[in-house]
Amino acid sequence: MGPGDWTSRRSAGVGHPEGGPPDGGLSQTELAERAGTSQSAIARYERARALPSLTTLYRLVRACGLELRMRLEPYMGDPRQPLIDDALRRSVEDRLSSNDNFTSLASQLQETPRPSDG
């Protein structure tokens, strides 16, 4: 989901993310009025042209009849770090060779005929 998807879902009348009953949704204008902002701001959020501040996000969520909950957790690091470290331990020649092999395989896969959907 992109930054603006939650307002799009609400405007379309999709209902609660937990799968609850649809509530009829809100138009951009209705949401803006309830949240104390402008319709054009809602449109920018939906198109991911802007991101609301945390305070504005809280008002938007409340305007939809929902509650925003957040929690802080310890940072556990980037799960990709062991792969990065492993790659950096390899020689440049080895990494380039692996890249050439991957590029060759990708080319072969692109040339492989796909079954028809028929």
Task: Describe the model.
The protein is 53% helix and 0% strand. The protein is an all-alpha fold and 118 residues long. It folds into two domains: 5-63, 434 Repressor (Amino-terminal Domain) (Orthogonal Bundle); 81-111.
Question: Which structural class do the helices and strands define?
Answer: mainly alpha
Write down the secondary-structure element order: HHHHHH
Uncertain stretches: 1-22
CATH topology of the largest domain: 434 Repressor (Amino-terminal Domain)
The chain-level mean pLDDT equals: 82
How would a crystallographer describe the biggest sheet? none
Summarize the amount of helix as a percent range.
Answer: 40-55%
Number-wise, the strands total 0
Portion of residues in beta strands equals under 5%
Question: Features of this protein?
Answer:
118 residues, mainly alpha, 434 Repressor (Amino-terminal Domain), 6 helices
Helices and strands in order:
Elements: H1 5-11, H2 28-35, H3 39-46, H4 54-63, H5 81-89, H6 92-111
Q: Short description, anyone?
A:
The protein is an all-alpha fold and about 120 residues long. The chain has 6 helices and no strands. The chain is elongated.
